[in-house]
Design brief:
Length: 375
């Protein structure tokens, strides 16, 4: 190529290359780890949909700090060990400025120390075990915690006159073990009694031995602070074994396959959670409408919390004026009265959100709003 022509063309080529690559390089990278497949797939699928919707809303409104956001999502397959690997990759390779995830507390607990060490802020949408944010000052959540949730359900049991309660806990999940402990504490301190305790492990399919032993103790109700996959089978097997008392649970019951698998067997049961799609507040209804238009399904708790987690992160970036770790951390910590889909979110000095819980009941194989309980 003649020198003159080359000197004329090359800058043009370089300029074109920069034009193509610059926006990508310039995007603000946020890592999201979620259980898109495996035993808790409904958690990850939902939280991801909500998170992605928030990122897209932010980008179509011009992005943050004049830049577009890029959500890098990795599937932890609901497997222990994966969150650590993924978050290490986010930080070392992708150079994310913040991490969003996970729903299950054990998964968040695995990732949190890595984010903390690297001074990369992490916001969990839905992990309720208190230990998650105790990992350090870079770790936040946008939901309530289990001492509150456990108290809500223990109070609910006592208010219904169910004083003799049995417990069935998933020993593989920090969430389940913790929530069980907080429930027992409140119940016992307020005139209730735990008549029997049994355990299982995530992935178990046969709960008949535990249920038979619980039945013999004749409880008024059974608290099952587990995740939807096992709870659905527990509900079915409990009815087959002739246990007629209500089962009680927490937010881990949320998941589209709970009722698909359990059918009518959980009718008359109750659980606490974060969000009711039939809440008539304009904020909730606008979100439900937007979510349905995009995904042709109704959002659940994790979707709403995923949306809130991404919005709180973006708001903090705007206030900080930078994505730099320590300044971003300070700005997230300063979140006050954020108008979230799941209610007004103020982060306290322990980086948790004090918010109302919603109690749902199950009747005719469907969820029904029961009541809201303020913190
Ligand atoms: N709170 C549960 C945990 O910490 C996760 C969860 C949240 C599940 C919301 C369903 C809905 O493990």
């Amino acid at each position: 190529m003649p020198t003159l022509l080359r000197s004329f063309l090359l800058p043009a080529v370089i300029t074109a290359a920069i034009a193509i690559h610059a926006p990508a390089q310039d995007r603000i990278k946020v890592g999201e780890f979620a259980s898109l497949t495996g035993g808790n797939a409904s958690f990850g699928q939902s939280s991801h949909k909500g998170t992605q919707l928030a990122i897209d809303d932010l980008n179509s409104a011009g992005g943050v700090l004049g830049r577009q956001l890029q959500l890098i999502t990795e599937d932890d397959q609901s497997l222990a060990g994966q969150p650590a690997t993924i978050v290490q990759k986010f930080i070392a390779q992708d150079k994310v400025v913040a991490v969003l995830g996970e729903v299950a507390s054990s998964k968040s607990l695995e990732a949190a120390p890595i984010c903390q060490q690297n001074h990369i802020p992490m916001i969990s949408p839905a992990s309720t075990n208190p230990k998650v944010t105790e990992v350090g000052d870079y770790i936040f959540r946008v939901c309530f915690i289990d001492p509150f949730q456990g108290t809500v359900m223990a109070k609910f049991a006592l208010a219904h006159g169910w004083k003799k309660v049995a417990l069935l806990t998933d020993v593989k999940q920090d969430y389940s073990v913790g929530l069980g402990e907080f429930f027992i504490k409140y119940l016992k301190e307020n005139g209730g009694e735990i008549v029997k305790e049994q355990k299982y492990s995530s992935g178990d399919k046969d709960f008949r031995a535990q249920l038979t032993s619980l039945k013999a103790a004749q409880p008024d109700a059974i608290f099952v602070p587990g995740y939807y996959a096992e709870v659905a089978l527990i509900g079915k097997q409990a009815r087959l074994l002739g246990l007629k008392m209500p089962l009680l649970g927490g937010d881990g019951w949320v998941g589209d396959s709970l009722l698909k698998v359990a059918g009518n067997s959980l009718d008359g049961s109750f659980f606490s959670c974060h969000f009711a799609a039939d809440d008539q507040s304009p904020v909730v209804q606008a979100f439900v409408k937007k979510f349905r238009a995009r995904y042709q399904e109704t959002p659940d708790d994790m979707a709403a919390l995923g949306y809130d987690s991404a919005m709180i992160l973006a708001e903090a970036m705007k206030r900080a004026g930078t994505t730099q770790g320590d300044k971003l951390r300070d700005a997230i910590a300063a979140t006050r009265n954020h108008p979230g889909i799941t209610g007004s979110i103020t982060l306290d000095e322990k980086r948790n959100a004090a918010k109302p819980a919603v109690i749902l009941t199950i009747s005719d194989g469907g969820f029904k709003f029961q009541q809201t309980v303020a913190p």
